Amino acid sequence: GAGVSQSPSNKVTEKGKDVELRCDPISGHTALYWYRQSLGQGLEFLIYFQGNSAPDKSGLPSDRFSAERTGGSVSTLTIQRTQQEDSAVYLCASSLVQGTAYEQYFGPGTRLTVT
Amino acid sequence: LAKTTQPISMDSYEGQEVNITCSHNNIATNDYITWYQQFPSQGPRFIIQGYKTKVTNEVASLFIPADRKSSTLSLPRVSLSDTAVYYCLVGERGGSQGNLIFGKGTKLSVKP
Lengths: 115, 112
Hints:
- The complex is a heterodimer.
- Chain A contains no helices and 11 strands.
- By secondary structure, chain A is mainly beta.
- In chain A, the strands form 2 sheets. In chain A, strands 2, 4, 5, 6, 9, 10 and 11 form a 7-stranded mixed sheet that branches.
- The chains are: A mainly beta, B mainly beta.
């Protein structure tokens, strides 16, 4: 079946512009996660959704970052007034149920470059 | 979430067995140990998960001692395609904690 998909695969934007990153999880997966990975670094947790609600927003780096999920499916991560330090690969993952130990299926990521 | 510690990098040669050890001294009773593999320009991929003793699948084996304060991922007869970053994670099923702390992982380089 189809895996997790993300769009766009690459995004180049100018500093100060807003960007929207999209994630389509595996059908039927109730949990959805966003991570960020800077070059040569590990994954940094941003936010997760259980259904349409986000119990844990502690990983969002600043109030310029927000995310939503609608219909228990597609999620959008929005970064307002982008800064150069926002440049990274943004990864989305989904799992059948919420819980740290449940297998997460990752998408290919969106590479964001802020110039 | 229990913090994990693993080597930053390891080198190996094709055909050798590779063992990557992860320390998790503060592991909780309900925690499972999970390993992910990440190739360049791809998202991580689940490899194996265990709670205690030994787990084996078609890709790897996971050894967990009785005190569960560490675990060892064993990759038999590695090939060049096993060059990747390997992450050890510890966490429970269910509950309200949803995130995974991946850390920097262990970068495995397999040479011919």
